[in-house]
Specification:
binds flavin-adenine dinucleotide, 19 strands, five-stranded antiparallel sheet, oxidoreductase, FAD-bd_PCMH-like_sf, globular, FAD binding domain-containing protein, eight-stranded antiparallel sheet, 3 domains, 12 helices, Vanillyl-alcohol Oxidase, Chain A, domain 3, FAD, Uridine Diphospho-n-acetylenolpyruvylglucosamine Reductase, domain 3, alpha+beta, 24% strand, flavoprotein
C-alpha cells in the first residue's frame, strides 16, 4: 500500500515554497480542506495528503519539482469536473484555483488562458472583444484541460474542436522544466497536447485561436437555443422526424435528444435540446417538422454565445455520483435508440436514485471543421454521439447504474468497431486505439510519451 504523506515531507514542501503558499491538510484545515477536496463527481473521489494552492507559475513549477524529486504522486486540478483530479493520502493535489486569467489579443485573434480559468470566463471575455472560441457546454469546466483533452464544442462545424484552436503552451514537464510548446520549438509536443495534453505535463498557459462573432452567421453574436418536450410514448415518431433533421447538412442544427425525467414532475419525457447557428429568425424552418408534431412544450430564441450553456448550469453542481458515458457514432439508428429507452426505464425502476440520469443522443448536422495540421485529436469524422449523463446518489447502486449505462452504449455503438470511437475527455479506459485513431497516431503518441514522461508522472496513459 502507498505510504501516507508525512508531516516532515509537508514541512519540507512548505519550506521550499514559502509561507505565502497555502497548503491544506485534512487534519489541520477543516472545512476549507473538505470544500476544496470536493469535485463535480464523487466517483473515484479520494482524500489527498495535502492540497497545495500556488498563486504563480514559479510556485507551480517548484511544487512539481518538489513532488518529482520526493517521488510524491500528484494531480493538477483546474475546474474539478473530471474523475481524474483526485488522489489518495499518499499524494498531493496542485489546485490552480488561485492562478487563473485570460488575456485577449483582438488584433492577432488569439487568447492566452492561464491556470484554472473557467470556460464561461473565457466565453465572456472573448464576447466583450467581439469574438468566441470553440467551447463546450459546461460553464464551470476548466478551459485548459477541456482544450487539452480534445474539446468537443458547440461550434465544432465552424471552428473545429477545442484542441484545433491550440497554438502554443507553457508546460511544466515530468522533470519540472518549464517548456515553451509551439510549432517552431516543440512541434512534437504541440501535436500531442492538441488532444492528449493532459498526459504530457501541467500546462500553466495555453494560447488559443479566436474567431470573430460574425462567423456565427448573424450580426448579434447569438445562436438560437430551443427545447421541445414530448411524452416518452411518442419516441418512435419523434425519432423518425429527428433522423431526417439530423442528417440534413444543409441547415446548421445541433443538440441533444434526451431521455429523462425532469424535475419537478419527474414524468419520463423525450426532450430535444436544440440549437441553430445562422440567422436566428430562420430557426423555425429546420425545426418545423418538430413543431408539426405538436410537442407538449416548444420554446426557443436567440442567446448570446457566451450564455449558450447557462441553461445547463445545474449539471455543473458538485457532489453525488456523476459520469458521462460517451461514445462517438457514425449514425443515428432509430431501432437502437428505442431500445435504449427501455434500458433507461429499467434503470430508473431498479435504481430510483438515478432519476437525474439522462440518456442523450447528440448530433451536429454538419461535420467538425478539419484543421490543416495533424494532431492527437482523431474525431473529425464524428458528428454523432451517445453522451449519457449518469447521475445518482446511492453508493450501493454504483455498479448497477454503470451496468445500465454500459448496456445503452453497447446497443448504440453496435458490434462493428469501425462504427464508433471513444473520447479522451470522457473516458480513460478501454482500448487506446478507440481514442487515438488513424495510421501511426497511437505509435507517435506513445513515442512522445516515452520521451517526455517515461515513468508516468502525468498518468500512465499511453505507457501501459
Ligand atoms: C458538466 C460538464 C460538461 C462538459 N462539457 C464538455 C463539452 O462540452 N465538451 C468537452 O470536450 N468536454 C466536456 N466536459 C468534459 C471536460 O471538458 C473535461 O472533463 C475536462 O478535462 C474537465 O476539466 P476541469 O478542469 O474542469 O477538470 P479537472 O478535474 O480539474 O481536470 C481534468 C484533468 O486535467 C488535469 N489537469 C487539470 N489542470 C491541468 C493543467 N493545467 N494542465 C494539464 N492537466 C491538467 C487533471 O489532473 C485531470 O486529469 C464536460 C464536463 C462536465 C462535468
Amino acid at each position: 500500500m502507498a505510504k501516507k504523506l508525512s508531516a516532515s515531507q509537508l514541512q519540507d514542501l512548505q519550506g521550499g515554497l514559502g509561507l505565502e503558499v497555502e497548503i491544506l491538510t485534512g487534519e489541520g484545515s477543516g472545512d476549507r480542506f473538505q470544500e476544496l477536496a470536493q469535485g463535480w463527481t464523487n466517483i473515484g473521489r479520494e482524500t489527498p495528503g495535502a492540497i497545495v494552492m500556488p498563486q504563480t507559475e514559479k510556485q507551480i513549477q517548484k511544487t512539481v519539482q518538489w513532488a518529482v524529486q520526493s517521488s510524491v504522486p500528484f494531480v493538477a486540478k483546474s475546474g474539478g469536473h473530471s474523475e481524474w483530479s483526485s488522489i489518495g493520502e499518499q499524494g498531493i493535489v496542485i489546485n490552480l484555483k488561485k492562478f487563473s486569467g485570460i488575456e485577449v489579443d483582438a488584433v492577432d485573434q488569439t487568447a492566452r488562458l492561464k491556470g484554472s480559468v473557467l470556460a464561461k470566463d473565457v466565453a465572456v471575455a472573448l464576447a466583450a472583444t467581439g469574438s468566441f472560441t470553440a467551447l463546450g457546454n459546461g460553464n464551470t469546466v476548466g478551459a485548459i484541460p477541456y482544450f487539452l483533452g480534445g474539446g468537443s464544442s458547440i461550434t465544432n462545424s465552424i471552428t473545429g474542436y477545442g484542441s484545433d484552436q491550440i497554438i502554443a503552451a507553457r508546460m511544466i514537464d515530468a522533470k519540472g522544466r518549464l517548456v515553451e510548446v509551439n510549432e517552431e520549438e516543440e512541434p512534437g509536443l504541440l501535436y500531442a497536447i492538441r488532444g492528449a495534453g493532459q498526459f504530457f505535463g501541467l500546462v500553466t498557459e495555453l494560447t488559443v485561436r479566436t474567431t470573430p462573432l460574425s462567423a456565427l452567421g448573424n450580426d448579434r453574436g447569438v445562436i438560437w437555443v430551443g427545447a421541445f418536450v414530448f411524452p416518452l410514448e411518442r419516441a418512435k415518431e419523434v425519432a423518425e422526424v429527428m433522423k431526417s433533421l439530423m442528417d440534413d447538412a444543409s441547415r446548421a442544427t445541433a443538440g441533444l435528444i434526451m431521455t429523462m425525467a425532469p424535475p419537478p414532475a419527474r414524468k419520463p419525457a423525450l426532450i430535444i435540446s436544440a440549437r441553430y447557428t445562422g440567422n436566428p429568425d430562420d430557426a423555425q424552418t429546420p425545426y418545423k417538422p418538430l413543431y408539426d408534431l405538436q410537442p407538449l412544450v416548444a420554446k426557443g430564441g436567440p442567446v448570446p454565445i457566451q450564455n449558450a450553456s447557462d441553461a445547463r448550469e445545474t449539471l455543473c453542481a458538485k457532489g453525488d455520483f456523476k459520469r458521462f458515458g460517451i461514445v462517438g457514432l457514425k449514425r443515428f439508428d432509430i431501432d437502437r435508440f428505442l431500445e435504449t429507452i427501455e434500458v433507461w426505464k429499467a434503470m430508473v425502476k431498479q435504481c430510483p436514485d438515478a432519476i437525474n440520469t439522462a440518456f442523450n443522443f447528440q448530433w451536429d448536422s454538419r461535420p467538425p471543421k478539419t484543421p490543416e495540421f495533424e494532431s492527437a485529436m482523431s474525431l473529425h469524422d464524428t458528428r454523432y454521439w451517445q453522451n449519457n449523463l449518469i447521475w445518482h446518489t446511492d453508493p450501493a447502486a454504483r455498479e448497477q447504474v454503470d451496468m445500465f449505462n454500459d448496456e445503452c452504449i453497447r446497443i448504440m455503438r453496435g458490434p462493428d468497431r469501425s462504427e464508433y470511437a471513444d473520447f479522451q475527455n470522457g473516458t480513460r479506459t478501454g482500448p487506446l486505439e478507440l481514442r487515438f485513431r488513424g495510421p501511426g497516431k497511437l505509435d507517435k503518441l506513445k513515442a512522445l510519451k516515452l520521451k517526455w514522461d517515461p515513468v508516468g508522472v502525468f498518468t500512465r496513459q499511453l505507457l501501459d
